[in-house]
Amino acid sequence: MNTFEYDGGKSESNNEKHGIDFEEAQLLTIPLAKPLHGKKHP
């Protein structure tokens, strides 16, 4: 799993520039689903 070092100033700058702050970006690293029984789905 990725780890992040929080910097409030960079988070605010990122939010202004890209429309997403570091707290929201961390949510993108959470797997939404795991394959069932090791099968890959298209």
Overview of the molecule:
This protein is mainly alpha-helical and 42 residues long. The protein has one domain. The chain has two helices and no strands. The longest helix has 11 residues. The radius of gyration is 15 Å and the shape is elongated.
In short:
The chain is mainly α and 42 residues long. It contains 2 helices and no strands.
- Can you write the helix and strand succession as a string? HH
Rounded mean pLDDT score: 79
Outline, from the CA principal axes? elongated
Low-confidence stretches: none
Write the layout of secondary structure elements.
Layout (H helix, E strand, L loop, with lengths): L7 H11 L3 H6 L15
Structural key phrases:
42 residues; mainly alpha; 0% strand
